[in-house]
Write a structure and sequence with these properties.
Length: 201
């Protein structure tokens, strides 16, 4: 069951990441928010599956990763569910928009979004410590997960330093390129994760 859940959740996460990437090219914020929810919902069982099949000496790292993934999913779900419901369906006042609308750089929910992805990055770092390297694909998976963990630093520091501000020139193109890069990076993570689970007995 652990193996199958890991395979299925890797596929769900992969599909959601691809959907997120495509939605940005289509300039569909609604689809990108929905895809982001499914990334979170696929990611948590994927991390838990890694933890379940890990060796006993790496269980603590696995449990840490699982908890961080749950925190990530909770924050991200709140952010994007608010965009799909309150922000999308309600005419917000300018003050409420500054707080709730993800499209406003530097808004509270934009900062929460980055905080959520910081926890995702921390989760990948710790789950990398549970990977039992047996071949090149495993090594690539471990390295990709470890490097992804470094993103947590920038996700925490950038909002605190006020890097993102409303009205920044070229912010949409820059943001899209950064997110497309992340998609291109995380797609191999999902593929290697699927292959890792597939070969487990």
């Amino acid at each position: 069951m652990n193996r199958k859940l890991g395979m299925y959740s890797s596929i769900v996460t992969l599909s959601a990441v691809i959907g997120f990437s495509v939605s940005m090219f289509l300039v569909s914020s609604y689809t990108s928010y929905l895809s982001s929810l499914f990334i979170a919902w696929g990611f948590v069982p994927m991390i838990c599956s890694f933890t379940a099949i890990s060796k006993s000496e790496s269980k603590a790292a696995g449990y840490t990763a699982a908890v961080f993934s749950a925190v990530y999913a909770a924050i991200i779900s709140l952010v994007y569910f608010a965009q799909l419901t309150t922000v999308h369906l309600t005419k917000l006042s300018s003050q409420a928009s500054v707080i709730l609308d993800y499209q406003n750089l530097g808004s509270l929910f934009f900062s929460y979004d980055l905080l959520g992805y910081a926890f995702m990055a921390l989760s990948t770092f710790f789950i990398a410590l549970t990977i039992n390297v047996e071949d090149k694909k495993d090594r690539w998976l471990k390295v990709l997960l470890l490097i992804h963990g470094i993103f947590s630093v920038s996700c925490i520091l950038m909002p605190m330093l006020g890097v993102f501000k409303a009205g920044m020139k070229g912010s949409y193109i820059t943001g899209m390129l950064v997110l497309e890069f992340w998609c291109a990076y995380f797609i191999p993570v999902c593929i290697f994760s699927f292959l890792y689970f597939k070969k487990q007995e």
